[in-house]
Amino acid sequence: MTYDLVIGDRAYSSWSLRGWLLFDAFDIPVRTHLARLYSDELPAMLRDYPPARTAPTMRTPDGVVVPETIAIAEELASRHPESQIWPTDPKARAVARVLAAEMHAGFGALRSHCPMNLRVSYTDCAPPDAVLADLARLEQVWEWGQGQTGSQTWLCGDYSAADAFYAPVASRIATYNLPVSARAAAYVQAHLAHPSFRRWRAMGMVDLPDQPFYFRDYPRRDWPGPKPLAARAVEGVAAENSACPYSGKPVTHVLELSGRRFGFCNAFCRDKTVSDPEAWPAFMSVYLS
């Protein structure tokens, strides 16, 4: 049985990113339903998910509607203890919950001045004092979490819900080139390289048109995460594979990578792969075979 998850634009909806990571990063099957922000699409879709008003909203396989990422995390952890969404060690679990709660409720200046935008990266955004104060607090709680749990890469040992909650903040630091310490920058880089984050961003690059609300007139730079392999969309249906690596359906759209052609069942499957081929194990198994 599969969960349903209502999400907004992947490039911009930070709360949706958190919610989806709670599934993908912990191998819990989910069926996503995408609605464009700042349009009638999301309210119309959520009419089928009472009492929800925001994305993300989850519906469990038995029909219970669960809005809000804190509630989603707790419900998934209860239903899937084997996934270890929260750390199994009691102390680490308590620390993770403290960190997630602060992220869920805080850092308003950073959220406002630096809205999530996964499609660009800037050289500078002139962060005001309130944003710098939020960054200082982030570094304080990240260092506290790692110190309490002895973790080197993630906040509380293995990747947990606490890290999923801070993924959108890590993306903001990357997008706006915000000033942080070397230790905090290493934590940001761990997020940018995480397979689930790479998949979300790859889809976010192509799933819906740009949202003008998120445009900022700052000088741009290359995205500071892992550099994708150089793939491109091409015309025709001639390809090495006859079936889409994701769905198994016949090939209708093709990309080219390293002089080789690979096919997919629709434009979105192809384009998300063009965005970051290495983010997709099913494609890489075909490419490397």
Describe this structure in words.
This protein is α+β, with helices and mostly antiparallel strands and 289 residues long. The protein folds into 3 domains: 3-83, Glutaredoxin (3-Layer(aba) Sandwich), CATH 3.40.30; 90-200, Glutathione S-transferase Yfyf (Class Pi), Chain A, domain 2, CATH 1.20.1050; 231-287, no CATH class. 43% of the residues lie in helices and 10% in strands. The chain contains 11 helices and 7 strands. The chain has helices at residues 14-24, 41-46, 69-79, 90-105, 108-113, 129-149, 161-176, 182-193, 195-204, 267-275, 281-287; strands at residues 3-7, 30-34, 57-59, 65-67, 231-234, 253-257, 260-264. The strands form 2 sheets. It has a 4-stranded mixed beta sheet. A 3-stranded antiparallel beta sheet has the order 5-6-7, covered by helices on one side. Helix 1 packs parallel to helix 3 and helix 4 packs across helix 7. The longest helix is centred in the middle third of the chain and has 21 residues, at 129-149. The radius of gyration is 19 Å and the shape is globular. The model has no long low-confidence stretch (mean pLDDT 97). Residues 12-78 form the GST N-terminal domain. It comes from Paragemmobacter aquarius. InterPro entries: Glutathione-S-Trfase_C_sf, Glutathione_S-Trfase_N, Thioredoxin-like_sf.
